[in-house]
Amino acid sequence: MPILRGLAQIVLVLLAVLLGLLVDVLLLIPGLLLAYFITGTTWQWDGWVPSPQQIPTPWLAMGLAVFATLVPAAVDYLLLRLLRLP
Predict the structure, then answer these.
(1) Could you tell me the pTM of the whole model?
(2) Upper half-sphere CA count for residue 70 (Cβ side, 13 Å)
């Protein structure tokens, strides 16, 4: 039954990856709020994700995206170090 064991391991890895992606998506909202706070951008709740009240310039939008993605990246780094994964 090594084939079934291998398939079970593949399914477990895929579930772990999906769980990690779900956590990253949920961490984007606090990342966006932190990015808006750091850059002083006014924002509003316009649905599921906070959005700026005025459309930012391209450079500011890029800066907001970098700040927003640093939060999930930092959490992923800490989790990988905590689990001692390469």
Answers:
(1) 0.69
(2) 10
